[in-house]
Amino acid sequence: QVQLVESGGGLVQAGGSLRLSCAASGSIFRINAMGWYRQAPGKERELVALIGSGGSTNYADSVKGRFTISRDNAKKTGYLQMNSLKPEDTAVYYCNADLQRFAWGSQYNYWGQGTQVTVSS
To answer: Residues of 86-98 as b/e, b for ≥16 C-beta within 10 angstroms?
Structure first.
């Protein structure tokens, strides 16, 4: 069974930083794209950042220049470094990954359980 477990959320003042981690566990052959999404109260879940298997990245306009997505393939872990945090960054942050459990298998999409990030003004 595959699990994605996020950590690193918490309460921080505006202008502060947090680093989120997403650790994948279970029988995994390869992790392809990884991403971070967030959902604020009363709003739809939105894409924050994506990183491909080769390291290419994409960011939402609202976080460009402040957030950095990265990954450590050997550790099967993804990261989201969040700097210059703003109150509007407050949300539950979810890790997402497209991965193959076996070399001959299909790719499936998985979600983590989410971690709360609260930015106070």
So the answer is: eeebbbbbbbbbb
Contact 68, 13 (CB under 8 A): no
> Nearest to residue 2, comparing CAs of 27, 37, 39?
27
How many Cα atoms within 13 Å fall on the side-chain side of residue 10?
A: 11
User: From CA 29, how far away is CA 76, in angstroms rounded?
Assistant: 10
Strand partners of residue 31: 99
- For residue 14, give both structure tokens: 């505006």
What the block records as the tokens of 68 is 């950095």
Residues 91, 39 contacting (CB under 8 angstroms):
yes
Give the residue from 82, 93, 102, 89 showing the smallest Cα distance to 4. 93
Cβ-contact 4, 78 below 8 angstroms: no
Over residues 50-77, the pLDDT tens digits come to 999 999 999 999 999 999 999 999 999 9
CA dist 90 and 57 (Å) reads: 22
